[in-house]
Write a structure and sequence with these properties.
By secondary structure, the chain is mainly β. It has a domain of 101 residues: Immunoglobulin-like (Sandwich). 11% of the residues lie in helices and 39% in strands. It is built from one helix and eight strands, in the order H-E-E-E-E-E-E-E-E. A four-stranded antiparallel beta sheet has the order 1-3-6-5, with no helix packed on it. Strands 2-8-7-4 form a four-stranded mixed beta sheet, with no helix packed on it. It starts with a helix and ends in a 14-residue tail after the last strand.
């Protein structure tokens, strides 16, 4: 009997402890919706992501350089815009995106860092964003012409002047 009471007490304490735990309220279920099934929803009622530019050319960079660019965008729709994920096309392209909802009319930035380590020549990479817009995916692009530095001849000795 005592063991059963002890189990019930422990389970109650565990339930109480988890029920009182603080929960993040950054994104509510009202912010996330399936736009295809929302009856009576017009395009004006939906979030809409508009980038100032969807492609950026870093130009000529030296192999091994890390370069970054901020893709500015605005929510031109009528509901909160949520970016649920952002993925680079390879490990050399790392995006950072806002985790909080972007209110209608608000601007924000998706920052992309590109590492040219081990790359050469013309390179094009992409970042795919998953949002609550219609359509739900948006792709932005970066490109660069990666120049491999020429190294001095290691067998050549420095000359004295």
């Amino acid at each position: 009997m005592k063991m059963k009471t002890l189990y019930i007490l422990a389970a109650s304490m565990l339930l109480f402890a988890t029920a009182c735990k603080e929960h993040s309220t950054e994104i509510s279920t009202n912010d996330v919706m399936n736009t295809k099934s929302a009856e009576g929803t017009t395009n004006a009622d939906l979030p809409d992501i508009k980038f100032e530019e969807e492609s950026h050319d870093f130009g000529r960079i030296t192999q091994g350089e890390k370069v970054a660019y901020g893709f500015k965008f605005k929510n031109t729709g009528g509901a909160n815009l949520i970016i649920s994920s952002a993925n680079g096309s390879c490990g050399c392209t790392v995006p950072e995106y806002p985790k909080k909802p972007i209110l209608p009319g608000e601007e924000a930035t998706v920052n992309v860092v590109f590492s040219s380590e081990g790359k050469s020549g013309m390179v094009e990479k992409s970042v795919t964003l998953v949002t609550n817009c219609e359509p739900s995916t948006k792709i932005i692009y970066i490109k660069a012409n990666i120049i491999v530095p020429t190294s001095a001849n290691p067998n050549e000795l420095p000359t004295a002047h």
